[in-house]
Design goal:
Elements: H1 4-11, H2 15-22, H3 30-43, E1 61-66, H4 75-87, E2 91-96, H5 104-111, E3 116-120, H6 126-132, E4 139-141, E5 151-156, H7 158-171, E6 177-181, H8 187-202, E7 212-214, H9 219-231, E8 238-241, H10 244-256, E9 266-271, E10 284-287, H11 290-305, E11 313-316, E12 319-321
Parallel strand pairs: 1-2, 1-3, 3-4, 4-5, 5-11, 6-7, 6-8, 8-9, 9-10
Antiparallel strand pairs: 10-12
Helix pairs in contact: 1-2, 1-3, 2-3, 4-11, 5-6, 7-8, 9-10
């Protein structure tokens, strides 16, 4: 990554002059400003935060970058991170990655405005993460494996959790099982899809693309996908939704159509958000240890800031929580 010294060298000026020009100071001429700005653009120079290149002190802040701050999935994760940051006398800033390359999260990463960052956002580019991570700003990545210096990896066993969910549906006698997918660029979604297919293969059930629907990890996406299923002549026996929010959308759509989840169609979600046990019927789902993940991620940040960088790839187990949305067994 280019530094202000590189910009100064390319523009043929002193570092102090380059700094004045980049900060639009009246101390330098317009001609010099244009020359420095052209050099900065050519080198794709990004200033390093509020203190720019002069950042010498810690911010006492940990950043948490999430795909969407509004989703119920994140509350336990945030609480886990917050418990550890408060205990260490740090502030926590949660930032949304909505908007991709133009998001506040991307700017936050480029400008290195925290002492450590935790990321659960599939639309943050790997190259940006690699370039942003450094000794005084380690990054914990929760949604994909990435081997890079100063990047720590904690993931949930998405494939194993999905396998448990689909095997449960198969054990109940279901064969026509929909996979309700999250975003195609989500590593978590990819691993859950692999677990789904692996369970089918284990039980000699052929995978058919007709049982693949897109829900984009949102309640609205699950609702619209269920509406599409209801338009087909042949309903599935069961639905495995790759997260609980989509599953709740499915429940709503089937209720509107006069069909009963747990009787007409079985349904399993993934995450075990707080709402899962309160919907009607209560949702069978794969539980992620979200608070534990948050606690562990924050602990890894503070260990790294103290010079103890873990190179271990941490994979956390999931648990199948059986409730009412799958009903009783069918005769095969």
């Amino acid at each position: 990554m280019a530094t202000i010294k590189d910009v100064a060298n390319l523009a043929g000026v002193a570092v102090s002059t380059a700094s004045y020009a980049l900060n639009n100071s009246p101390r330098v001429s317009q001609e010099t400003k244009e020359k420095v700005l052209a050099a900065a653009k050519q080198l794709n120079y990004q200033p390093n935060g509020i203190a720019r290149d002069l950042k010498l002190s810690k911010t006492n802040t940990i950043g948490l970058i999430l795909s969407d701050l509004s989703g119920p999935f994140y509350s336990e994760l945030i609480k886990g991170v917050q418990d550890i940051t408060i205990a260490n006398g740090y502030d926590l800033i949660a930032i949304s990655s909505l908007g991709g390359k133009n998001s506040t999260a991307v700017k936050f990463l480029k400008e290195k405005r925290a002492d450590g960052i935790i990321i659960l956002a599939h639309n943050i580019d790997n190259n940006l993460i690699i370039s942003a991570a450094r000794e005084d700003m380690p990054i914990v990545l929760l949604d994909r494996p990435l081997k890079a210096k100063y990047v720590l990896n904690i993931q949930v066993d998405n494939e194993g959790g999905a396998y448990k969910a689909v095997e449960h549906l198969i054990a109940l006698g279901h064969r026509k099982i929909v996979y309700l997918s999250g975003p195609n660029n989500s590593y978590d979604n990819l691993k859950r899809f692999e677990g789904y297919k692996k369970a089918l293969i284990t039980h000699n059930i052929s995978f058919s693309k007709r049982w693949l629907y897109q829900g984009n990890f949102t309640k609205e996406g699950g609702y619209h996908a269920a509406k599409l299923m209801l338009l087909q002549d042949d309903l599935p026996d069961a639905i495995f939704a790759a997260n609980d929010e989509m599953a709740i959308g499915v429940i709503e759509a089937f209720k509107e159509a006069g069909l009963k989840i747990g009787e007409d169609v079985a349904l399993v979600g993934f995450d075990d958000i707080q709402l899962a046990k309160y919907v009607n019927p209560s949702l069978t789902t794969v539980k992620q240890p979200m608070k534990e993940i948050g606690v562990l991620a924050a602990q890894q940040i503070f260990q790294a800031l103290n010079g103890n960088f873990s190179t271990d790839y941490i994979l956390l187990e999931t648990e199948l929580i059986i409730r009412d949305s799958c009903g009783s067994s069918r005769k095969i």
